Amino acid sequence: MRVVKCSLIADKTVLIVGLGLIGGSIAKGLKKANPSQKLLATDANLASLDLAKDAKVISRSGTLEEMAGQADIVVLAVPPLMLPTIIQSLERHVKSETIVTDVASVKSHITDALKNTSQVFQGNFVPGHPIAGSEKSGFEAASSDLFEGRKVILTPSSQTKTDAVALINLLWRSLGAQVIGMSLQKHDEVLAATSHLPHALAFAIVDALSNQDGSDDIFRYAAGGFADFSRLASSNPVMWSDIFVANSVATEKVLEDYIENLMILKDAIKAKDKEALFELFSRSKETRDRFIAQYFTKEKKLIMNNKPITFHLAPGGKVAGTLRVPGDKSISHRSIIFGSIAEGVTHVSGFLEGEDALNTVAAFREMGVTITGPENGELTIYGVGKHGLKAPHEPLYMGNSGTAMRLLAGLLAAQDFDSQLTGDESLSGRPMNRVVLPLREMGANIEAQAEGTPPLKISGSPLTGCNYSMPMASAQVKSCLLLAGLYADGETSITEPAACRDHTERMLMGFAYPVSVGKDGVTSVNGDGLLTATNIDVPGDISSAAFFLVAASITPGAKLTLTHVGVNPTRIGVINLLKLMGAKLSLSNEKTVGGEPVADITVEYSQLHGIEIPESEIPLAIDEFPVLFVAAANAIGDTVLHGAQELRVKESDRIDAMARGLSTLGIVTEVYEDGIKITGGPTGGGVVDSHGDHRIAMAFSVAALCASEPITVLNCNNVATSFPGFVESAAKLGMLISAGEKP
Ligand code: S3P
Q1: Alpha helices in 247-305 (DSSP H)
Q2: Which of 334, 743, 343 is nearest to 532 (CA)?
Q3: Nearest one of 391, 323, 399 to 564, comparing CA atoms
Q4: CB of residue 544 inside a 6 A radius of ligand 1
Q5: Mean pLDDT to the nearest integer, 94-113
Q6: Which of 48, 615, 730, 732 could staple 19 via S-S, CB 3.0–4.6 A?
Q7: 737: closest CA among 683, 693, 698, 694?
Q8: Distance from first CA to last CA of the chain, Å, rounded?
């Protein structure tokens, strides 16, 4: 990770309160990034201050009262229980615009400490916690690169000012850290388990052994294992006793769980139960090896999902009950994009915590946006404004998501920095010229591979508005160009040959950005507006609901209600087509939430019949065809689709992948370049390959409801990109599904 010099921080006078390991490392790191950085410090330990002055790390020192008024940024690097007193005194002496942060490993007690301060002070206070350290303490142990490549958690509240959050984010970026956001409560729970518990155990084991007879001998002969395990017991006792007092509730809880586990281990040892011990140790080893590989190696993105997941489906099963499907993927991506470049704080609820949308969150964090969550579908975005994104330190990984890559291409083309967009194997084979070519017409400097595929290399440049007529009805292309248009000189107008999803336009309106949507299929924006933060309630994804709409339609006796589903007119092709096929569907509880129509959908079994799919419905049902093909396989007669070449360049070639799988199951198909004919008939069983395509995997799971034999679906890992919890939801409704690692 490259340390960035950032002029916004370089101009500021930074006061470090507490020049121990963390405070000292911040001081040394800032000085290394910018030798002319003005640094002040205060510490009860005068020797530390002298050392720092001798090393020319700080320029001045004194008491808090003397130093506070001179600082633009104050970093409180003291043990947690000292914070309330220091905050009180600091408030009296800082300038009203001074931004304050801390580094404490416990955050919830900060809320109490801030309660008695003014609103201005609270708005300027950004709680933070670097996940870095060492068992050593003091300025001598401090190191300028302690935070390089390490994570820093910020826990701002809804009162915290976005400018303050952005500045503290930059401070940590300038030290080479990666900034993530979390709610205060979640932070304390996570840290209790991952940091506080191991420290407690290290202190406890050393203490327990030292109280035993012959402890000298024990320590004399203790080999590497003991030294490794007990390393944390050399940590600073002042700091750590404070941490356990401040985070007593959460640490007590994890300690209790741990003691229960320890009792199980003790029983297994007492019973000489080799099998139980072997199982426990193997499970632990596997878990640790996996997390080290995922989170502590550079290639983490390539080795994610490394164990192939297979779905096993028994024939038959029921579909009954009520379900709320996860949040809409398209809207979730867009909420992060627009929230990030808006002015102010955007709250999102109902967010899809699937891998695709989480990669988008990670990309914007990498560009300097502080985002807390998602926790139970809620997240908060501290917008940096249209021109506040920062150059990413590394290529932005878009995983499996064509939407994220194409939309970000438009946004990044207009920034004043360079960037690269990469993706997984499937995304790396998908066509990008559909956005690269029109972006170049706007003046973008963007390169794809020779085949027009990712990675994309973008050199940010000024753009000029354009009039573009899309050759295909693509919401991704339209949205990409609208995003570029937000930055372009003059007007950008896009004409779509047929209506395609309009979430971008609706969301722009939600963010109070002027956008003109004509009846003639022309959408225009000008580059001179601003986005104002708003709250977004993401409806359930109709593309995920579609699996269960078909499941209920083909299963005799089925009756199901899907609640709070997005029923935007540009997305309801699946409803229109199922109705044309004779499905029994009805909408209730219709309302508009944040500019998007939502409704509950009730569906029950009905004998379907084949249809000719009207071409106008194709863009409105573009992602639902895999499961609509399963509906067709269960209908009486032929279903014919033409004009759907786009299906060949989705996460897989969906015409080919579905035709192969349906043939394996005994369904007769005829494949065309632009579509397919499916003749309804009895479904058999067998092994089908999803080709790593989430929607193919879920479609074949639905097919099992009317199959005569079991169906095994291979390569189902990517279901997590759009529908985390699919297996559990399907099982809850009565489908006979399980997931495993073996074919
Ligand atoms: C999407 C648009 C559609 C769709 C994709 C999501 C979007 O793609 O297939 O899953 O969020 O804009 P195209 O616009 O390329 O058809």
Answers
A1: 248-270, 274-295, 300-303
A2: 343
A3: 323
A4: no
A5: 93
A6: 48
A7: 698
A8: 39
pTM (two decimals): 0.92
221 has a pLDDT exceeding 90: no
Q: How far is the CA of 349 from the centre of ligand 1 (A)?
A: 22
Ligand 1 atom with the smallest distance to the CA of 434 is 15
Ligand 1 pocket member 622 (CB < 6 A): yes
Which residue's alpha carbon is at the smallest distance from atom 9 of ligand 1? 623
- State how beta strands 668-672 and 675-679 pair: antiparallel
Residue 741, both tokens? 């690692």
CA of 476 from ligand 1 middle (Å) equals 5
Nearest to 63 by CA among 126, 20, 15, 13: 15
Classified as helix, coil or strand, 523 is strand
- Sequence-distant (6+) residues with CB within 8 A of 281 are none
If you count them, how many residues does the chain have? 743
- Which residues face 378 on adjacent strands? 375
Question: Which residues are within 8 A (CB) of 277 and not within 5 positions of it... i.e. 6 or more apart?
Answer: 265, 268, 269
The beta strand positions in 27-72, using DSSP E, are 38-42, 60-61
- How many CA atoms does the CB half-sphere of 491 hold within 13 Å? 9
- DSSP class per residue in 475-514: HHHHHHHHHHHTTSBSEEEEE-SS----HHHHHHHHTT--
**What is the spatial distance between Cα 465 and Cα 467, in angstroms, rounded to a whole number?**
7
Hey, is 163 helix, strand or coil?
helix
pLDDT (tens digit, 9 = 90+) per residue, 179-212? 999 999 999 999 999 999 999 999 998 888 888 7
Closest residue by Cα to residue 396 from 345, 343, 336: 336
Query: DSSP E strands: which ranges in 144-211?
Result: 151-154, 178-181
User: Which token pair is 217?
Assistant: 């001998």
Is residue 672 within 8 Å of residue 653, measured between CB atoms?
A: no
Sign of the C-alpha dihedral computed for residues 112, 117, 118 and 123 taken in this order: negative
Give the phi and the psi of residue 263 in degrees, each rounded to 5.
-65, -40
Q: What are phi and psi of 599, to 5 degrees?
A: -160, 165
Written as one letter, the residue type at 561 is: T
Q: Answer yes or no: are the C-beta atoms of 606 and 631 closer than 8 Å.
A: no
In sequence order, what DSSP letters do the residues of 688-716 get, joined into one string? EE-TT-HHHHHHHHHHGGGBSS-EEEE--
Task: Please choose, from the candidates 614, 685, 691, the residue with its C-alpha nearest in 3D space to the C-alpha of residue 648.
Answer: 691
Residue 184 in contact with residue 111, Cβ under 8 Å? yes
pLDDT in tens, 402-442: 999 999 999 999 999 999 999 999 999 999 999 999 999 99
Query: At how many degrees (to 10) do helices 402-413 and 329-340 cross?
Result: 20
Query: Domains (ranges, CATH) in the chain?
Result: 7-178 (3.40.50.720), 190-268 (1.10.3660.10), 310-325+540-740 (3.65.10.10), 329-537 (3.65.10.10)
Q: Which atom of ligand 1 is nearest to the CA of 333?
A: 11
Distance 469 CA to ligand 1 centre (A): 17
Q: Is 623 a catalytic residue?
A: yes
Q: What phi and psi values does residue 439 have, to the nearest 5 degrees? A: -65, -40
Whether pLDDT at 299 is above 90: no
DSSP string across 63-85 = -HHHHHTT-SEEEE-S-GGGHHH
Q: Which of 671, 722, 406 is nearest to 546 (CA)?
A: 722
Which one, of 463, 510, 525, lies nearest residue 489 by Cα? Answer: 463
DSSP assignment letter at 328? P
Q: How confident is the model at residue 139 (pLDDT cuts 50, 70, 90)?
A: very high
Q: Select which of 623, 638, 674, 693 is catalytic.
A: 623
**Residue 246, CA distances (Å) to 103, 194, 196, 239, 240 in order:** 14, 16, 11, 11, 10
Which residues have a Cβ under 8 Å from the Cβ of 240 and sit 6 or more positions away?
A: 199, 203
